[in-house]
Amino acid sequence: MTLGNRWRLLTLGLVLAAAALWTAPAGAWLFDAVTPVAHEVRNLFWKAVGITAFFFILAEGILLVAVLKFRAKPGRAPAKWHENLRLELVWTAIPALAMVILSGPAFSTMKYMETIPKSDVQIEVVGHQWFWEYRYPKYGVVFANEPLVLPVGKTIAANVTSIDVIHSWFVPPFGIKMDANPGRINHVWFQVEKVGKYEGQCAELCGVLHGQMFITVNVVTSEEFDRWIEQKKKGV
Ligand SMILES: [Cu+2]
Fold it and tell me: How many C-beta neighbours within 10 Å does residue 213 have?
């Protein structure tokens, strides 16, 4: 393979990988964030990328300069060094400090996700091998294996649990990925900003049909939601 071909193949690979990330539902928290939680997660991601990219470029830049400047040349042997305690301390301490600085926004984002505000709609999400059951306790509505329906703009609080093994309720555009553990109730909240159909999937290997434990959430207007829940109450 010639060098030109190799570059072409590499570029094609990168373009395909970027396209897959862009179109796959799993990347939606980054490209289609639709809840305040998802926006927070995305902001945190970019902060982490910014800080780590700074050190990556700095370290690789220094490496490149060292390689070019001190390499062997005709009539000159390559430079050699061994150990420099002060330098090693500095280049360990600075990135460590950067991680400490980054832990601030990381903890505040976590706190934001975990503090459930006063909710407008309370639901229960129950994982089964291999489908999701949804309950609306206030309305006495329970169903399984069909899309969850929620009103746009309202604060939704969800209790997440499981009947059998560990599942995970993962809806990327909401920035939500919560384990559903048997014998334990986990809490999440979200407020969807746009009407639409959102997709997710069980994100914890839970058995042979794990790959088919899809999640669909239809986010509708309040009026549509009221109509839908009335119908559901009647068992339609
Ligand atoms: Cu599962």
Answer: 24
